[in-house]
Amino acid sequence: MSDNLKAPDPLVPVPQGPVPVLPTGSRKSVEITIDGATVAVPEGATLLEAGRMQGIDTPTLCFLENLTPVNVCRICVVELEGSRTLVPACSRKVEAGMVIHTDSERVRHSRRLVLELLASSVDVSTAPQFQDYMSRYEAEPSRFGPPGPPAAAGERDSARPGHHHAPDGSTASRVAQPVKIDNELYVRDYSKCILCYKCVEACGVDAQNTFAIAVAGRGFGARIATEYDVTLPDSACVYCGNCIGVCPTGALMFKSEHDMRAAGTWDESAQSQTDTICPYCGVGCTLTVHAQHDLIVKVTSPLDQDVANGHLCIKGRFGWEWVNQDKDRD
């Protein structure tokens, strides 16, 4: 056999070739004017991204970096010169020559009205960011009348989904309904739901591809529901909890947090947050462990981690209770 046809000697290391480098093209820049300042931003960026590059804090509710913008809350709207209506900053792409006003009186009035309408119809007590926005824009939900009495536990309105009526005939919150507790992992309190669609997106193509929940009904009867409005254990839900991770109001909440709030023991000021790697498999998702008095109370995941972009599976998000049981035994 000729020397050219001999197999390489396994004792002689074969030098490694160069690591392939993917070609990267630089994004072109376009010039726009934001709040009187002319700036250059990458082509294809949204107005929200362009504003953040300039340190402008544009409020958002239905937007999240790891989800597809759905443009439903309309709180991020900005004024674009030449446009008849205000435009959503979370999805509108920059175009050369745009003149944008992010804090004009027209913009502030629109945001204030959206906040007032939402806060007058849903419970925002567990949505601190929402309350910060109300203070920032001086929103007064009481302008639309006092909220109706909450629905009693177990009460359901068969006449119109999403509506409940008190004995005196007054109408409660348009989405008032009993808290749904049908599993040991998380609860659903849709009296706090602002229909931001984040949970639907996370359960769908943006993360889990389970499609266990969707928006049912129309108009005032629109609500988040499982297929045929069955309980979670009877639905397609796989309990990944990604819907909890994106919910901005606490309508979807860890059962551990819900129970502690009900008992008056939930105290975020006494909680620590520690990042670690999920031990259950080799994917390497980052976990943020929230602990209070040496007990784990919930687990989240940072949006900026590259492995799962803030999404987790059932083990990563809920598989920590055994740690607390060991603590109890100690």
What does this structure look like?
With 330 residues, this protein is of the alpha+beta class. It has 3 domains: 28-146, Ubiquitin-like (UB roll) (Roll), CATH 3.10.20; 174-261, Alpha-Beta Plaits; 267-330, N-terminal domain of TfIIb, CATH 2.20.25.90. It is built from 8 helices and 12 strands. It has helices at residues 47-53, 105-119, 128-136, 198-203, 242-246, 255-263, 314-318, 321-329, and strands at 29-34, 37-42, 77-80, 87-88, 99-101, 186-188, 213-216, 223-226, 252-254, 271-277, 286-292, 295-300. Strands 2-1-5-3-4 form a 5-stranded mixed sheet, sandwiched between helices. It has a 3-stranded antiparallel sheet with strand order 10-11-12. The protein has a two-stranded antiparallel ribbon with strand order 6-9. The longest helix has 15 residues, at 105-119. The radius of gyration is 25 Å and the shape is globular. Mean pLDDT is 85; it is low at 151-174.
